[in-house]
Design brief:
alpha/beta; VC0802-like; Rossmann fold; 2 domains; 8-stranded mixed β-sheet; 11 helices; 15 strands; elongated; binds S-adenosylmethionine
Amino acid sequence: MKLLAKTFHGLENVLAEELAGIGATNITPQRRAVAFEGDKEVLYKANLHLRTALRILVPIYNFKADTEIELYNKIHGYDWAQHMSNKQTFAIDSVAFGDIFKHSKFLSLKAKDAIVDQFREKTGDRPSVDAENPDISINIHVSENKFTVSLDSSGESLHRRGYRDSRHKAPLNEALAAGMILLAGWSKETPLYDPMCGSGTIVMEAAMIACNIPPAWHRKHFCFMAWKDFDKYLWKSIRDEAEKKIEHPRTYIAGNDIDMKAVDMAKLASLEFRLNREISITKGAFEEQDPPFRRGMIITNPPYGERLKKTDIFAFYKKIGSTLKQKYAGYDVWVISSNEDAIYRIGLKTSEKHILYNGPLECQYLKYELFDGSLKERKRRQNLKRDLDK
Ligand SMILES: C[S@@+](CC[C@H](N)C(=O)[O-])C[C@H]1O[C@@H](n2cnc3c(N)ncnc32)[C@H](O)[C@@H]1O
């Protein structure tokens, strides 16, 4: 069956790799999505295992329509009883691009009327709409006059792992944080540090990766569970297989924040998911602290400066740069920020750059390799070794 996984801009290739890992075929990265093929097992695994996916759609119906009446007729003409009964609730989410259909809410309303009318005509009864917690979630995508109607197999967005503390003002999306860790090529053997960890999203995602805990492990409900063809034995065997792989290896994952409230949130998240052995959290100013490990990787999301004066945020990023240079030789450092002028003040040579979106904010995700010893000295030693090897 053809399937589509939605993600964030910039994470399409990471998601494609994740899909290859769960046995998906014909994997084709698109804009903010990856198309792929697979059977029911792949569909269930996609919902359980993909760290950078937001939802998994199953396209069921493609058609063209140029007017509202045509749209109504096309939706009305499709046999909805294959997917739902009049006893179930449903919701429609539409996204419209182009000049013909501009209002996605109106589009959802028309499609809803067509489905309800079909059931009423055939059975005398109608399914109800439940925008919050529907049994069946329908997704309509229209570009000009081309419609794709899909069943949303996930329901609530997959980025919600269940540990999020809503009190932090600027948390990273969990799927974005996981994508940053995967893009950085982090492996659990490498000590990881987030010196400005806020509510702890990066360290939580890293610990879940290290322990092979599926991102949706703590989630009770997915929309595919209300489908007529839900195979609970297959779902159980997929969960059992995943459970066998969960382990608690020796890891070095540390978070730190200057704000005690953030420290508490990060600690609470790790306690709730029983990852407090894997993650250690400290309180302090990054620039005043000693590194928690002799070498390793930093992945961090500093403040972007919305609430600070320009001069202060520039000085802060300059301080980040000098602290890294003085204290973190031997680390690979990844920084995400939407503040292009500030990030430039870090003043270190970048070795990799990605564009990612933190909500609506376009961000740079930059890598700095902080060599142990000067680059000149490193090169001198490399040349010496090469000469000796000759
Ligand atoms: C954008 S938030 C990080 C959000 C985090 N990634 C999350 O998902 O919750 C930036 C964090 O940096 C912290 N911070 C600011 N200045 C700091 C400093 N000098 N040392 C350590 N932490 C600092 C703030 O308290 C804030 O929690």
